[in-house]
């Protein structure tokens, strides 16, 4: 529970949208928790408790408001806590680690005791790992009820419930009614699922699309910017959007992401309903929707020159990754070549080793590239062998994107042909690390020398200390400044 009064009280009274999702209000007289922007009559101060997460409010015995729908609030990034163990645990929980597995198994993966994990979650989130997982399942299921035409059975399985009985029981316990009774309108379906994702303003969707456009893998990804379509032949050319084909849980599909007001709209065709939650997690990271611009910009603006860059693009976001292995290969391919050249090579790898599905081509898996002939790739042999070694390590389970980030970095950099820049880039994109800083990047170095007046890598590293923990965003501002 958070202390009452001060900034939180003021945000509640003014229904300040900047704080939506950053805390929740429990009302003792009703037993309900709400978003700070809830339109209902303002509760009396003495009846209000503040919580920094929906899970913490749930742990305290409050049930979610049906009016403001806490499950629709902008999220909070997993890395907001100071504990790397909590950050990693949240990523694993979001991937469904506690849907079928136990807390003990999760602790084994994290290398900590159950008691230590319980203490970390209480200190950082105000709720147990099990409550966080239960809240996650409930919120996603409620979202599917409100926004899709999926059956209750499909929703139960999509949300990570082990059975329909468990799904029904959780809803009755929480809302005192069945999940079916909460569906107000039966939506018609054309075979696709369309979900909305809220974000905090300002949000620079255009910059993200530009970033992805010049890196779109031909045949796999497509980006439409200002009605200019790049990528998949014959793809929808209407509006600004990102599109790609994928295979998850053995099922192929296609997704598109566009903006509508202060929300993103993610439309999914094909795939399995069981992979919906994973798709949404990947899209959230890829489009950095959980960022809190106010916090990021406040820190970066303490640097006088950086302040000017922030004013130009206050809604700049970090580009993430839908497929972490794909991004890792991209990082190796991109060593010492232009962005355009790397995109061409990625297209050739996808064309030669990828798989064609009814929804388009998908990038080759680690298992496929583990067997490639390095001589078949249009790049220096050392770089091609690095891709093969990376693929072997991932395919054999020796290297995983759910590892501790520092351990991952050290194992990656130990592979022949992979240097610090490559490993840092992978961490920035695949781990969505907001503090990963590419201080050795040639473009960033040149821009830093021009506008910051730092002439050496060491000077840049020292200057960047003041930008923590948002050095990744600072790097994006410098990258964008290079484009004018």
What fraction, in percent, of the residue positions are helical? 40-55%
Question: How do the strands of the widest beta sheet line up side by side?
Answer: 5-10-9-8-6-7
Unreliable stretches, pLDDT < 50, 5 or more residues?
228-238
Number of helices: 22
| pLDDT averaged residue by residue | 92
Number of individual domains? 4
At the fourth level of CATH, the homologous superfamily of the largest domain is Hypothetical protein, domain 2
Radius of gyration: 23 Å
> Total number of β-strand segments?
12
Describe the model.
- This protein is α+β, with helices and mostly antiparallel strands and 484 residues long.
- Helices cover 45% and strands 12% of the residues.
- The chain folds into 4 domains: 6-72, DNA Methylphosphotriester Repair Domain (3-Layer(aba) Sandwich); 78-182, Arc Repressor Mutant, subunit A (Orthogonal Bundle); 192-290, TATA-Binding Protein (2-Layer Sandwich), CATH 3.30.310.20; 324-482, Orthogonal Bundle (Endonuclease III, domain 1).
- It has 22 helices and 12 strands.
- The strands form 3 sheets. A 6-stranded antiparallel sheet has the order 5-10-9-8-6-7.
- β6 and β7 (228-230) form a beta hairpin.
- α18 (405-413) runs antiparallel to α19.
- Residues 228-238 have low confidence and may be disordered.
């Amino acid at each position: 529970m958070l202390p009452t009064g001060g900034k939180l009280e003021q945000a509640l009274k003014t229904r300040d949208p900047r704080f939506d999702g950053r805390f929740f209000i429990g009302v003792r007289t009703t037993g309900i928790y709400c978003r700070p922007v809830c339109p209902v009559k303002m509760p009396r101060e003495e009846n209000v408790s503040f919580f920094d997460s929906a899970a913490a409010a749930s742990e305290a015995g409050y049930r979610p408001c049906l009016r403001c729908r806490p499950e629709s609030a902008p999220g909070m990034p997993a890395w907001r806590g100071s504990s790397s163990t909590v950050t990693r645990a949240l990523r694993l929980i979001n991937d469904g680690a506690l849907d079928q597995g136990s807390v003990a198994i999760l602790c084994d993966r994290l290398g900590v005791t159950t008691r230590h994990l319980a203490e970390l979650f209480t200190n950082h989130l105000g709720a147990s790992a099990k409550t966080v997982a239960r809240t996650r399942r409930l919120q996603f299921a409620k979202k599917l009820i409100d926004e899709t035409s999926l059956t209750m059975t499909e929703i139960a399985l999509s949300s990570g419930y082990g059975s329909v009985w468990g799904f029904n029981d959780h809803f009755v316990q929480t809302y005192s009614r069945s999940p079916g009774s909460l569906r107000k309108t039966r939506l018609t379906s054309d075979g696709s699922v369309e979900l909305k994702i809220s974000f905090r303003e300002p949000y620079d969707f255009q910059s993200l699309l530009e970033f992805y456009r010049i890196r779109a893998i031909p045949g796999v990804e497509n980006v439409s910017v200002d009605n200019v379509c790049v990528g998949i032949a014959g793809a929808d050319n209407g509006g600004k959007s990102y599109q790609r084909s994928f295979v998850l849980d053995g099922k192929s599909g296609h997704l598109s992401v566009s903006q509508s007001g202060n929300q993103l709209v993610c439309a999914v065709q094909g795939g399995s309903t069981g992979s919906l939650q994973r798709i949404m997690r990947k899209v959230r990271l890829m489009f950095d929707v959980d960022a809190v611009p106010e916090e990021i910009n406040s820190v970066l603006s303490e640097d006088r020159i950086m302040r000017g860059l922030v004013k130009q693009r206050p809604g700049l976001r970090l580009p993430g990754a839908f497929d972490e292995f794909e991004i890792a290969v991209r990082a190796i391919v991109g060593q010492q070549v232009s962005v355009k050249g790397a995109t061409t090579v990625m297209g050739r790898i996808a064309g030669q080793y990828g798989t064609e599905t009814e929804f388009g081509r998908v990038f080759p898996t680690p298992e496929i590239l583990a067997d490639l002939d390095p001589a078949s790739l249009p790049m220096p042999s050392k770089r091609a062998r690095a891709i093969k070694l990376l693929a072997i390590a991932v395919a054999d389970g020796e290297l995983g994107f759910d590892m501790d980030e520092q351990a991952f970095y050290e194992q990656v950099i130990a592979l022949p042909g992979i240097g610090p820049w490559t490993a840092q880039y992978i961490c920035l994109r695949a781990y969505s690390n907001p503090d990963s800083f590419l201080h050795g990047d040639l473009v960033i170095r040149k821009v830093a020398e021009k506008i910051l007046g730092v002439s050496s890598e060491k000077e840049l590293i020292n200057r960047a200390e003041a930008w923590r923990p948002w050095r990744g965003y600072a790097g994006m501002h410098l990258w964008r400044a290079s484009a004018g």
